[in-house]
């Protein structure tokens, strides 16, 4: 049952990066759009993410619940030593959702729409940035349970070159996913070409940010290269991700967008497998001490068993409802 829980944890993180990342990326694309095209970009993105944008956070909630119930030591460590970036990220999620709702459903259209739009765009950048910072901090080994000073315990655990570079990479990935996913939602050839161009730009930005992550890992003495090339599984994932990147670029330049969503999703999945495989089952690397493992720092066997059963039973009800939600809105778009 423990492996069932771990599988759900990994899958929920992946799905949040893919679906929630595309959601955040919509705001990033709007933020990066020129003033002339901002309104049109906003309309296309609203049509794409409007019906299901709130459902994306379900995956984050599932991951948090799994950690809280099944791995309380890991949950407590992250909550204590990374409480500042966690708070900023959660505030960004709340501000973004609130601004999105008021901007699109407010009965009164006045100057506050500008405030809502700016809040939506800025929080769309800040939230994935700090999500990546949290992830980078968790694996960087900078969390120091023995720290006696506030800065060492709660600031320098995340405010460092490598975590920040991972945050920038995460934000660019979100923008790339949004551009790729929204291409299929465009109604005109002009809109389609605009988002193809945005996908190219965000792909280049993501590649640049990935190079920055490698540089930061070298400077901060983090064995990222070993994680990526230290075992056959990770090597195979990196090679396949590189091949899919070439395939994606050829498709973008030819204007063929049929397989783009699948290619983009496969790339993120392969990268996540490559990074997590080498240091499994350790989820949190700590400074000068043993990391926190999913196998040893878990709850009681009864708790893990009950959690696994709850996840399996919950899937029977939640997943069909989610698929039906997506199907319903797709049908609505087709008949509109």
Protein model, in words:
Helices cover 79% and strands 1% of the residues. The chain is mostly helical and 336 residues long. The chain has one domain (2-220, 291-335). A two-stranded antiparallel ribbon has the order 1-2. The radius of gyration is 20 Å and the shape is globular. The model has no long low-confidence stretch (mean pLDDT 87).
Main attributes of the structure:
single chain, 336 residues, mainly alpha, two-stranded antiparallel sheet, 13 helices, 79% helix, membrane
Give a nutshell description of this structure.
Helices cover 79% and strands 1% of the residues.
Mean pLDDT: 87
Number of strands: 2
Structural class: mainly alpha
Query: How far apart lie the N and C ends?
Result: 46 Å
Layout of SSEs?
Blueprint: H1 2-32, H2 35-49, H3 58-70, H4 72-81, H5 83-105, H6 112-140, H7 150-155, H8 161-183, H9 189-219, H10 224-229, H11 232-254, H12 260-278, E1 282-284, E2 292-293, H13 301-335
Antiparallel strand pairs: 1-2
């Amino acid at each position: 049952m423990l492996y069932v829980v771990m599988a759900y944890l990994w899958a929920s993180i992946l799905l949040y990066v893919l679906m929630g990342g595309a959601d955040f990326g919509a705001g990033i694309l709007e933020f990066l759009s020129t003033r002339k095209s901002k309104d049109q970009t906003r309309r296309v993105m609203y049509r794409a993410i409007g019906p299901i944008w709130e459902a994306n956070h379900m995956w984050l909630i599932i991951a948090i619940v799994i950690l809280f119930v099944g791995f309380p030591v890991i949950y407590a460590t992250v909550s204590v030593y990374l409480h500042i970036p966690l708070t900023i990220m959660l505030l960004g999620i709340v501000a973004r959702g609130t601004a999105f709702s008021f901007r699109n459903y407010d009965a009164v259209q006045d100057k506050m729409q500008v405030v809502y739009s700016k809040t939506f765009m800025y929080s769309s950048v800040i939230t994935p940035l700090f999500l990546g910072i949290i992830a980078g901090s968790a694996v960087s080994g900078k969390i120091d349970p023995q720290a006696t000073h506030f800065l060492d315990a709660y600031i320098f655990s995340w405010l460092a070159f490598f975590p920040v570079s991972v945050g920038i990479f995460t934000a660019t990935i979100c923008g790339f996913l949004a551009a790729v996913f929204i291409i299929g939602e465009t109604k005109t050839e002009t809109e389609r070409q605009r988002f193809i161009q945005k996908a190219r730009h965000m792909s280049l930005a993501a590649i640049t940010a990935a190079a920055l992550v490698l540089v930061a890992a070298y400077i901060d003495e983090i064995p990222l290269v070993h994680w990526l090339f230290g075992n056959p599984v990770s090597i195979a994932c990196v090679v396949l991700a590189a091949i899919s990147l070439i395939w994606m670029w050829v498709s973008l330049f030819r204007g063929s967008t049929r397989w783009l969503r699948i290619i983009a999703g496969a790339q993120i999945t392969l990268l996540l497998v490559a990074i997590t495989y080498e240091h499994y089952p350790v989820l949190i690397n700590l400074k000068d001490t043993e990391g926190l493992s999913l196998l040893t720092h878990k709850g009681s066997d009864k708790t893990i068993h009950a959690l696994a059963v709850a996840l399996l039973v919950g899937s029977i009800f939640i997943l069909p409802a989610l698929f039906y939600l997506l199907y319903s809105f797709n049908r609505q778009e087709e008949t509109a």
